[in-house]
């Protein structure tokens, strides 16, 4: 099958297939006599694996490692689990950071009247050295020396 058909069958765009080939994530496709790329069902299966790994948020280097493990029938599943749990830990950290960002921004937006006056708690909060620490656990603004002096 050609690159368009492989893209359609795998869910990976032709542009990404060419990119994956250029970085050595997948082997370069065979070529027809006229120079067109030719993909096998196995190539499509590998591309589908990569697509699923990308959907799960794995970065390219971890996908490279997972592909290697997937293709190694002698590997222990424990090796795969190490990669997956490391990625899970990274995701949990990112989720916690995103939730904290969301909560901080929601707090700032809630305290902004949004009228025609130039006073803006959102911008005031963002101008703090650490906007997340500028509020205590109850959502009240904590006095900072810089704020008191002004």
From TrEMBL:
Query: Tell me, what is an example of a GO biological process annotation in this record?
Result: positive regulation of DNA-templated transcription
Q: Where does it live in the cell? A: Cytoplasm
Question: Is-annotated flag, keyword Cytoplasm?
Answer: yes
UniProt entry tagged with the keyword DNA-binding: yes
Q: Which GO terms describe its molecular function?
A: copper ion binding; DNA binding; DNA-binding transcription factor activity
Q: Which GO terms describe its cellular component?
A: cytoplasm
- Entry keyword set: Cytoplasm, DNA-binding, Transcription, Transcription regulation
| Main location per the UniProt record | cytoplasm
Protein name in UniProt: MerR family transcriptional regulator
Native organism: Caballeronia mineralivorans PML1(12)
